[in-house]
Amino acid sequence: MSYKIDPMPPAARVADVAAAVAATRAGGARNEPISATAETDRLSLTGDAEGLKAMGRELGAAPAGIDMGRVNALKAAIAEGSYKIDAQAIAARMLDLDRELGR
């Protein structure tokens, strides 16, 4: 006894043809790329976001206002182990920064 091996039954072929006809009527085959659509999405930033964006650009630019001599001296003092940490001064500056950012 032998059976014919057919990878796709006849009913599936009919369904494929019907789908292709429907796609053609709808304006093209399903495997074609979709053409560009109208722009509908927009992004608008708040004033705060615009300010943060501008601040990021400024900070990302050249290190204006940074005394590189002092930075290098501090790096050397830390590397030597002679830098003294003043916890009170650090805490005071952190509170100042918190007040400034809270405005």
Automatic annotation (TrEMBL):
Responsible for the coupling of flagellin expression to flagellar assembly by preventing expression of the flagellin genes when a component of the middle class of proteins is defective. It negatively regulates flagellar genes by inhibiting the activity of FliA by directly binding to FliA. It comes from the Bacteria. Belongs to the FlgM family. InterPro entries: Anti-sigma-28_factor_FlgM_sf, FlgM, FlgM_C. This is Negative regulator of flagellin synthesis. GO terms for biological process: bacterial-type flagellum organization; negative regulation of DNA-templated transcription. The keyword Transcription applies. Residues 41-96 form the Anti-sigma-28 factor FlgM C-terminal domain. Keywords: Bacterial flagellum biogenesis, Cell projection, Cilium, Flagellum, Repressor, Transcription, Transcription regulation.
